[in-house]
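Module 6 notes. Inverse folding takes a fixed backbone as the condition and produces residue identities as the prediction. Think of it as a translation problem where the source language is geometry and the target language is the twenty amino acids. Below is one complete input and output pair. Work through it position by position during the lab.
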């Protein structure tokens, strides 16, 4: 199974030998690839929608992996039994929805040894949630594919106290490891924020909406530059 850069990044964070629960599996590509490659012995491919789950079932059947990958129609972790999975992968959805799934699935996560999360938005909120919920982020990765940036988080049970907001916004491990994709992202955001501010200034500050937007962009630019400054210190 040939995976995209984003999916390969997510798959690479699954610990070999673990049983995987892939929440929001869509086409089932990650479980199929990991079982085919002998990385994991089995998987549960779960989705809240019947359409994607049917596509996953077809791909699993064509791959000859029906004995090793089970599909389940499930709202988040609802249909995951306690002790059925060592690794839980949740990817390709917004941060708030991901947090809701993890909150609602607290009981099912009791015996899970690792989370692999790839939020499409509000990544800082997800990192804060993990810290508050007894998970420790011990690794992260980042790719740029088709003009978009994607970040994947690996978390294990444990204490975490990062403290500085810039770490939650951009990832402490990504910053400390001087991840090249993060560096490119920060420079892109600095440029984009600067361009937006320049255009807003040209339009004047005659409305409350424009003034609020200027304040918002200045705040983002400040934290982007804080991230860049930290990033440059760990070369």
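Target side of the pair, the amino acids:
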């Amino acid at each position: 199974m040939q995976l995209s850069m984003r999916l390969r990044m997510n798959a690479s964070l699954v610990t070999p030998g673990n049983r995987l629960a892939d929440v929001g599996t869509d086409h089932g590509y990650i479980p199929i690839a990991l079982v085919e490659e002998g990385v994991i012995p089995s998987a549960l491919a779960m989705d809240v929608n019947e359409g994607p789950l049917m596509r996953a079932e077809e791909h699993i059947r064509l791959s000859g992996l029906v004995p090793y990958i089970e599909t389940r129609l499930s709202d988040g972790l609802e249909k995951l039994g306690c002790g059925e999975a060592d690794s839980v992968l949740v990817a390709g959805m917004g941060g708030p929805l991901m947090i809701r799934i993890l909150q609602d699935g607290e009981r099912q996560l009791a015996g899970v040894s690792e989370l692999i999360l790839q939020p499409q938005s509000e990544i800082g909120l997800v990192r804060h949630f993990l810290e508050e919920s007894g998970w420790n982020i011990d690794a992260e990765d980042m790719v740029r594919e088709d003009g978009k940036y994607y970040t994947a988080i690996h978390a294990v049970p444990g204490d975490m106290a990062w403290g500085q907001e810039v770490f939650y916004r951009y990832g402490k491990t990504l910053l400390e490891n001087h991840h090249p994709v993060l560096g490119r992202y920060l420079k892109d955001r600095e440029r984009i924020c600067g361009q937006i501010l320049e255009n807003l200034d040209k339009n004047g500050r005659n409305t409350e909406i424009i003034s609020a937007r200027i304040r918002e962009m200045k705040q983002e630019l400040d934290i982007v530059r804080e991230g860049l400054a930290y990033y440059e210190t760990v070369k």
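Reference fact for the lab report: Strands lie at 20-23, 43-47, 69-73, 87-93, 114-119, 135-145, 148-157.
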